[in-house]
Amino acid sequence: MNKILLYKYVIFILLFSNNVFAQDLDKSLVKWLEKYSKEELDSRLTSIKLKYPNSAVPLFLEAYIEQDGERAVKLYNQIIQNYPNSTFADDALLKIAQYYYALGSYVSARQYLDNLIDQYSDSPLIPEAKYISARCLIATGYYYTAEEELKEITKKYSSSPFKSQARQELRILDDLSKEEQNPLQLSNPIINSETQGTISQDKKKFTIQIGAFRDQNNALREKEVYSQKGYLVAINSKDVNGDLLYMVSVGEFETEVQAATFGEVFKKLHGVSFHVVKK
What we know:
Blueprint: H1 3-15, H2 29-33, H3 38-51, H4 56-65, H5 69-82, H6 89-103, H7 106-119, H8 126-139, H9 143-156, H10 162-178, E1 206-213, H11 216-227, E2 233-240, E3 243-253, H12 256-270, E4 275-278
Antiparallel strand pairs: 1-3, 1-4, 2-3
Helix pairs in contact: 3-4, 4-5, 5-6, 6-7, 7-8, 8-9, 9-10
């Protein structure tokens, strides 16, 4: 029985009574958990804690259903520290990395991913860890390094579902590298104040708009989020049918095509909708 099946088997045996059937072992743990309310899971968790006080199992389940991200991270860290040889240690590392990735803390995310890859080299989670690691590199501007990591996934993990996702990322990087005078050069794709002198200001006619706010403070918070990630972010006020709106835009581009290309990458990285506008 491989690690994933063993992992599911332990969870199911602990959670179920005599209603466990063999075919249930082929179902995803996540799918199963989604069927139950937090109250039901909490009830089961209490009995598991009492029955298995010195096990990583209750910790993992408690972290999994925890709604507070920071508390979940603490629980996962307890698994890593107290049960480094458990079936759940590699998954705990991945869960923490995913949390930091979602927050945009890419350096922290990569630290946990590197630990997973180094300490659990036989883990079935390695392809996913490498893929998220490459996404962290893309988000922070290290496109060449990301490209190498994505290529490794396509060559080394041919049976992994992350192979197709890695190929998709490589196609995006390839398209960007072919753009003439592309503002997102692979050596330094994030547009910040240090790169603004490379193109004359009068040629930068387009930008991507990512938000429009009635409350200026909301616009300022949006700007702060992406400025900290290294993007050139601007706020412009505009009267729209008598309402004063604060428009948040990212980047400056010579052509509409360049702006749209950047926008698609930005959307993929951060899940933010956009539309191209003239400055």
